[in-house]
Design goal:
Distance between the termini: 59 Å
Number of strands: 21
Cofactor: a divalent metal cation
Organism: Geospiza parvula (Small tree-finch)
Keywords: Hydrolase, Methyltransferase, S-adenosyl-L-methionine, Transferase
GO molecular function: nucleoside triphosphate diphosphatase activity; O-methyltransferase activity; protein dimerization activity
InterPro entries: COMT-like, COMT_C, COMT_dimerisation, ITPase-like_fam, Maf-like, SAM-dependent_MTases_sf, WH-like_DNA-bd_sf, WH_DNA-bd_sf
Radius of gyration: 27 Å
Bound molecules: 5-Methyluridine triphosphate
Helix content: 25-40%
Number of helices: 23
Shape: globular
Amino acid sequence: MVLNPVLGKLVSKRVVLASASPRRREILTNVGLRFEVVPSWFKETLEKSSFTAPYEYAVETAKQKALEVANRMHVKHMRTPDVVIGADTIVSVDEQILEKPVDKQDAYRMLSRLNGKEHSVFTGVAIIHCHSKDNQLEMEITDFYEETKVKFSELSEELLWEYIDSGEPMDKAGGYGIQALGGMLVEYVHGDFLNVVGFPLNHFCKKLAELYYPPSKHNIQHKKYDSIPSVDTFENLSDGESSNFTEHKAASKLDHSGMRSSGAAYTSGNTSAVRTGFTVPLENQNGVSQSASKLPSKILELMDGFRASKALFVASKLKIFDHLKDKGPAKAVDIANDVGTSVCGTERLLDACASLGLLEKTPQGYSNTDSANTYLTSDGKYSLHGYIIHSNDHLWPLFTNLEFAVKEGSRQNHRAFGKKADDLFKDYYHSQEVNQRFMAAMHSIAHLTARDVATAFDLSQFKSACDLGGCTGALAYELVQVYPNLKVTVFDLPEVIANTSYFQPSGQHTAPVTFVSGDFFKDNLPEADLYILSRVLHDWPDEKIHVLLSKVSAVCRPGCAILLAEMVLDDEKKNRSTALLQSLNMLVQTEGKERSGSEYQALLKQHGFKNVKIRITGNLLDVILCVKT
Ligand SMILES: Cc1cn([C@@H]2O[C@H](COP(=O)(O)OP(=O)(O)OP(=O)(O)O)[C@@H](O)[C@H]2O)c(=O)[nH]c1=O
């Protein structure tokens, strides 16, 4: 059974798992799928009696979970995913649906019902393919369910309570986890084990195969299509490669979110296969199966990562995306002439960008993809151009010294730029050009994340806020849009405040945002009900953070609050590679680091901020709020 060509279809897409279940995340991660986790806010409260069969309830709930995320990402985050996956697992016994227990007594009630009997576990799954057309979200929904029968042994009261006291039942449908201690309760399982754990992987892959590779006439006549179709049943897995393509050809794609896939397309006669890292049976012209060797695709992708980044950086520096904006397709020679580069070099860069999904290439020439128009042109509302240029000019030289940073445990500004900066931000502010570049970079990220930061919590009770280190005011302007009664002071160094006018939003009522210059380590902080520190604490070591938090705490009256916006690491520091790589980014250039929710909690607690709430937004920044009591 060959899974990867099927899952490979998702590699170049922005895939979102609309689930908070760590089991689902693990099942999909284990098979190499790359995706973002955006837990659904859909409340599982559909009226059970309105469904004729339990599986219908699970399927509908799964669908609603996925729809909520697809809509939220499109409308609120303005990031339309390509595919959203939602799932819902329920246990059904004696015509009753059991979900997660609300407390220990409820868990006891559920487990007693299952005791000594066979029950069914249903997982409903929804796969939503999304497209944004004229800003409207268009969706194609595919759903299915899987049933597994599970029988519990006869269990004593004592054992049931011991199990309940382990804490395991609480976040699990039916009140048990078959994959852990709960496995001891189970006499037999008929069907897909992973379906019980929370995600029917096999059925999911079959569904993808049906969606992406509908069986052709040839397949129906000659091939067995028993489970996930093996590659030799696919007529053309290489997405548009013609069937007379006879050479080995490497392919590598970037989707809108920057995810990348790589693989090799092989064709012989009318059979082709995308090979992405698992053993792929291939068929030669005589119909004899061969085995391609195993490729470590993930490692190969990582080895190539820097090349893809640099191609994006150079195309951005040359303003190729600006050049192609609002234009029909252009030929490489014309682009080269316009931007003043060599034709042969430009052609290779354009081809690389097209293969990465940044440009479209047709016989008429090259044009921007939608995401290039939105994010890569320098003047777009959600332009990442500033951050890309900062990445190329500032972060790249620093990262080339990562080895020293790891060996020495310290930042590498002296090696990268030949000078030792005593103060972190002196590097940025020594020249107007670098200052503006840095501000543009911070502005890009602040703008992209501002809506999610502003709405992660309801902040309507606050009348005034002070954004410490608020830079260009991107978050401040978003806040006053979302909360019309709020007045926001942006407090930042004089060198920053002097340059903010360039970033003022046009056509927006700017009165509720004021800019005050000062150094938050040295000067008095402006009065406010809410103090915001967005991407500030990660710049500093704990000692400095204590200085800053004690200053905020001193001016923060009861009822006032502190709001942090940072990439929050999971407590085990193993799951969020974007945030963990960002922590390396902090190592090469600062004395700071990214921290986990518990670490932020501990820092805040020492300054009287006790009731800490954390929201993982699914965007680049998460939000921590603590109201002082
Ligand atoms: C029977 C069984 C269930 N589960 C977990 O039960 C949760 C079901 O709840 P859900 O509502 O489908 O999902 P959730 O956890 O609330 O997440 P979400 O998708 O965000 O609603 C999921 O976690 C499953 O793994 C196990 O881990 N092992 C088992 O043997």
